[in-house]
Amino acid sequence: MELANRLFFRLYQCANMLHKTGSRAVESEGLTTQQWAVLGALSRPESKGGMSVNDLARYLMVSRQNLSGVIRRMERDGHICITPDERDRRSRLVRMTDPGRDIWLLRAQPKIHAYYDQALDDFSVGDLAHTLHYLLKLLENMKRLDSGIEEASDAELD
Fold this sequence. Notes:
Layout: H1 2-26, H2 33-42, E1 51-52, H3 53-60, H4 64-76, E2 80-84, E3 92-96, H5 98-119, H6 125-157
Antiparallel strand pairs: 1-3, 2-3
């Protein structure tokens, strides 16, 4: 348990430092790490037509409530727009605007890549592959935990 405690504490510290140093890397573009994640999600080819708020929250693994403030600020700043889904008028799609795409591609991406280079200094390709493998494995286990919690909550409501 001591080793597990140390591992999770280091993950907690890494998440906090990612937020702090990652936001600093893109702050001159008016972005935070949360906004960086939203633009990254929306820049994927499969998201070209936009993403529903629910799908975006699921992809980023955050609650709709946590995402709503970020989306409001990004819409206010002109990085994204929210439009009704033509297939389902009750659903809203989040899309990157042209100015948002310019900020993402031309101004933020070079700074993000420089940040990655600095943060991953002295990591070999093998180190990166192993780290990614173990983080994905941990993430799958935590998703299972999350699913079990949701199922238990649903059962209590029945």
